[in-house]
Structure formats: structure tokens, C-alpha cells
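Hi there, hope your week has been kind to you so far. Do you reckon you could talk me through the fold, stretch by stretch? I've dropped the whole record in just underneath, so have a look:
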Amino acid sequence: MSTPTPAPAPLDLKSIQGDILAGLPKKTQTYFFFTIDDARVPEFRRQLAKLVPLITTTAQVADDRQKIAQKKKEDPRNGDHDDKNDKHDEHGDARRTFKISGVNLAFTQKGLTKMGINDDINDPAFKAGMLADAVNLGDQGTTTGGVFSPDWIPAFKQNIHGMFLVSGNRHETVEEKLEDIGEIFSLKSHNATIHEVIRIIGDVRPGKEKGHEHFGFLDGISQPAVAGFDTKPNPGQESVRQGIVLIGREGDNDLNNVPIPRPSWALDGSLLSFRYLFQLVPEFDTFLKQNPIPVGIPPDQGSELLGARLVGRWKSGAPIDVVPTKDDPKLGVDPSRNNDFRYDFPHDFETQDRCPFAAHTRKTNPRNDLEQLKISTEPRRIIRRGIQFGPEVTEDEAKSGKTTKGRGLIFAAYSSNIVHGFQFIQQSWANNEKFPPKAGATVVPPVPKPGFDPIIGQAANPSSRTLVGTNPQSQSKELTLNTQWVVPKGGEYFFTPSIKALKETFALEK
């Protein structure tokens, strides 16, 4: 029964799955999607009790990160578990022997229903699933007989009941952990209680591209700090109440600030929005080369400036609102400075001198664009995880400007409310060419249509996307984006339960 939960006890980091608040340390990560066998649901739930000890908690992540820091201190070549396939790995030295792995588990609404857990979590997007939401998110597809079918890979159009998220320092480490999970659920036998739908493997990019997504921009910078957990936020890092991320905690409210009724067992769980996003990197690079911003600088610099103004950051991570004309790589990697801005420099609110209104980072976290209008962005904040997938751009792809190999971003975002968070950001901000609101009297001349988010914004006709403000010297000039460079090929909404819930509600006693 869904009832308002009483004031919860302090956070128990041993009961919160590790990827939510802390992020599982990783060089590689596998997302294993499964269905529960129709005839073996009770057996699956009994087997869950054996899995629980393998699940990585937030407390364990903190301990793992301490071990990584210590190993790195002992040997700078060691313990860096956010990198992949560098020369130390290839030569098989101590770094390869420092094994570390993490396991998390999440379920879809169909998975909860399959297990007979029928309490309403009270999130319409989660309840319906992402396949039903794809048309609202703007994904491309076809409508037949009144039914929309997105252009996704077939696996994500099938039933999915749950997902194992397994991270590690090497592929072999992850495979070993997946074997352990498979044994628990008899995966390779005739009496398997789960069946694989698809597995997706992501890897941190190699060498100097570590931390950068495939377009080349440093990623994952602007994360909210969660009150009571992130006790030392960086300058400019916004703090949010625990209930923005964790169900049942302070701030888990509707837009009238009334606590949302939740099942008591949902406390300290989080909703996960998963997206399988392919990136057309050669086409993106070609567009930049063909459209340098003409502001009296060489064409290659004009192309670099265009990329920065589309994203809102230089490739180093330096925000263009702070350094609008030239990259500052030291600023880009400095956590004490690279997020310390609010789009509140003089005239920021009404002009695009420093940053276009429709730049990706401004669209998805508008900061002062809404705060000046007395609109809080806290309910919209999400914690982004995920990882890159696919090979680096080949020489032939770079020369031809055409993508021939699949690569992109495995996007994963946690929040207590998908409707207020991920869904709203995509539908009402990124896909809304009138956002942020700049048509009022405070903006002279008014900008009724800042344009689509050039990176993740989606339109019914992808080649019709436009935005203004890319050229700071001709801010009303419209730029047409001839290609949608980020292409969704699947996704789903999940609930990531607490360890307590897994033990007491999901798992059955023998």
C-alpha cells in the first residue's frame, strides 16, 4: 500500500546501492538486461537472497575508493580505475592485478509486477516504461495503427524485467562477476530463473580521452551535491535535498511541495533512466569544420569555438560562460573552478555574448535563467552515471566524415522522480525551442526561440533543428543543424531498491 513514509532515520550507506550516490569505480561496465522465467518466479525470489551479499553498497564504494587512492599513492601507475587500456594494462604490471568490481541491481515496473510486488511507486513514467514514453521524448520512429514504434534495436522493444550493472577494472573481472551471478540464477542450465535479453558493454576512453565523451568534451562535471552525503561540495556545485535523488527522503515531493505517497519499502531506492545513445562523431566534426564562426580568427579556431558554443564548454571542460573566447585547459580540469558559474555575469540573462541560450549545458541546467525568475531548478536535478561505448573513430571514418562503427554514450541518471527529472529535462527543456524563456520584456531584443539543444534535443524532422546565438557577433542569426548527432537506440526506466528492501520485500525465504 502506498502511504506517506514517516520521517526516515539518517542515511544508512550500507543499505543504499553504490552507483546512486557515489558511482561505482570503473574502467569497464556491463549492463546485463534480463527477464524472469514465467514458471520460476518464486525460485528467482529465493535466489535473490544469495545475490544480496554481492551487491555493492555506498559504504563499500567509499572503502573501494580509499583503496584506490592508497594504491595510487604507493604507485602512481596503480589504482586509477577510471581509465582503460593504457600502456600499464597492456604490459600486465601491478595495475592489472589490483582487482576491483561492483554489482548493482534494478527492476522495471514489469519486473516488479512479475514478482507480485504491486504497490504503486507513484511515478507515471516508470510505471509506463520508456518504450511507451519514446514518442514523448522525441525519439524517431513510425506510427502504425495508432501505435508508435521507435527506431530502437529490437531487444529494447521486448519485455525487460531487470538489469544487473557490473563494473570492474578489467573485462575479465566483470566477466568473473557475471559468472557468479549466472550461477546463482542457474543461467546456463535448463532450469534458469532468468534469461538474457541483451548485454551492453561500456569502456572509459583511453589515454588523454579519459573522462571525455566521444565528441571529445569532458563529461560528468556538473553533478549536484546531495545534502548529508556530499559534505564538501566544490565551488558552484549546487546542493539538493536527499529526496531529489532518494525516494522517501526530505524533498521527495510533488511540485506543490507535498510529499509523494510511496511504499514504505521504496525508502532509499532511486529511479534510474537508462538510454542507449549512439553518436555520429565524424558527421559532428564535419559540421564544425564546415561552419566555423567568422569572428576574425582562423577557421580551425572558429570550428573549435562553434563546438564550444554548441556544448557550453570547451573540450577541456572549461565553461564558455567563464572563458568565452579561448579554451583554458587548466580551468577545465580544476573542480574548484570548472563548475563555478551561474550564467549571471553582467548581461548574461539577456544576451548570448558569452554563452548561447540553447547551448547543451545551459538547456539542461539553466541555473540563473530560471533562478532570476524565482523558479527553482532543484526538482529537475539528476545524478548522471553511465560510460562510453564503442571504438575510437577510425582513420577512414575521419576522412569520409561518415560513421561506420557504433559508438556513443550509455546514459544512466538517478533521481527520485523521472517525470520531474529526466523526462522533463528532455521533453520540456532540450526539445523545446522556446526554452529558456527569453521572449519577455527583460530581454532586448526578445528571443522567442532560442532553439533546440544541439546535442540531445530532438525534433520530428531531425534536419529541421535550429538555434540562435552561436555567433556572438550576430546573435539573431539562425543556424540549421543538418543532422541529429545523438541517436537513441533503446532505453528503459528502472527502480534501484535499497539492500533492506531486497532482503525484506524482494527476496523470499527458503
